[in-house]
Amino acid sequence: MDSGNLVLSDDDSMETSPWESFKNPTDTFLPGMTMGDKLTLTSWKGKDDPGSGRCTFKLDQETESQYVVIKKQSVYWKSGMARGKFPSSDDIILPAIADLLSNFSKSGIPDYLKNPTKQLPTNRSLDLTRLVMNNNGQLQYLTWNESKRNWSLIWSKPEDECGIYNYCGKFGSCNINNWPLLCKCLPGFKPINPFDYWESTDFSVGCIRNSASTNLSIFLSLKNMKVSDPDPNLGSNVANETECETKCLENSQCVASLYQEAENGTRRGERDNNCWIWKDLIENLQEYPNQDRNLSVRVAKADIESTARSCERCGTYTIPYPLSTGQDCGDPMYFFFDCNTSS
Fold first, then answer.
1. What sections of the chain are H helices per DSSP?
2. Which of 25, 34, 95, 206 is found 20 to 30 A from 174 (Cα to Cα)?
3. What is the CB-side half-sphere exposure of residue 320 using CA atoms within 13 A?
């Protein structure tokens, strides 16, 4: 067919077709296809080997309107959260890709990508685009550049190691600027397998608390954090951050909370602000400067009391806990740097 769809038909009328390529793709999604529950993109085995590879892209069966890349039978990347008011904005797919995947059907586009003031693009505007599941696990969106006569990469995920889902494991945080040791345990935690954690490049096992204490009465505020989805059943509206932390303390399973002020502001005493709760564990943590989110993590006082104080000022700069300039303050396991005031 002119669309590029190869159709096997029982008769010339094309009314019935036992098989068509748009419903049985390999690694590429083209305009005219529709991403349904049963459609999966499967990568090539290698760059020059079109056999079935180990990476797939499909709708997430556990979360509505969310997409997932599976590599070697494990989650490798997830698109941004579609429900509620807690989107992972850097991982949300481009609106143009949402149009492509839904075959320009407004009912097939998640609410968080809809723009009621803007009309959907026509099929013609996306004719020369494609979405490819690469054999290295990266999802790529490309458009045809007529002047250069080649395909131009417009968008891809994951972009780096920290973009890989839960790269540092539970209670581990990733910072792409801390090369080569991208992962570290949160303050008050230690690697489950210390040798594997520090000596290898596989950090997925994650971290555990320094002690077995159940008296998790202290909150550590971790700045600019990207984090996995909160528990959808425990979110609530609160008046302030203290009330949010209190709700976390009242739940024995709560390990972290995040307070988010209403976008339009709220008058004092009104309970219009969001309180997000994580129970049992937190994962997919990343220090992310573009995320204006401060995560409050519950820890035992005994696990951090030896270093639970801020360092002295470095010149004109305040050094907040857990940042460290030495062994006697902050948490050197979290982030250590030299304070040089001689220049």
1. 95-102, 194-199, 241-249, 301-304
2. 95
3. 4
pLDDT in tens, 245-264: 999 999 999 999 999 887 66
pLDDT of 206 > 80? The answer is: yes
| Phi, psi angles (nearest 5°) of residue 335 | -160, 120
C-beta separation of 303 from 211 below 8 A: yes
Reported as type and span, the H/E element at residue 45 is strand 41-46
Torsion of CA 48, 54, 59, 61, to 10 degrees: 170
Out of 21-25, 69-73, 286-290, 307-311, least confident range = 307-311
Q: Where exactly are the structural domains of the chain?
A: 7-159, 310-343
Q: Record the tokens describing residue 121, joined without a space.
A: 């693009």
At residue 186, what are phi and psi to the nearest 5 degrees?
-65, 155
Measured between its terminal Cα atoms, the distance across the chain in Å is: 70
- For 58, the 3-state DSSP assignment is strand
**Backbone CA torsion sign across 124, 126, 129, 131:** negative
Cis peptide before 158, with omega less than 30 degrees from 0?
yes
Task: At 183, give phi and psi (nearest 5°).
Answer: -105, 150
The answer to whether the CB of 287 falls within 8 A of the CB of 173 is yes
pLDDT score for 108:
47
- Summarised one tens digit per residue, pLDDT across range 291-324 is 667 899 999 887 876 555 667 767 646 676 667 7
User: Going by DSSP bridges, is the β-strand pair 150-157/139-145 parallel, antiparallel, or unpaired?
Assistant: antiparallel
Q: Which tops the pLDDT comparison, 87 or 144?
A: 144
Number of Cβ within 10 Å of residue 88's Cβ equals 20
- CB 193 within 8 Å of CB 252: no
Could you give the dihedral angle defined by the CA atoms of residues 114, 115, 116 and 120, in that order, rounded to the nearest 10 degrees? -80
Distance CA 14, CA 10 (A): 7
Q: Is residue 241 within 8 Å of residue 259, measured between CB atoms?
A: yes
Q: What is the CATH number of domain 7-159?
A: 2.90.10
Tokens 């520090």 identify what position?
198
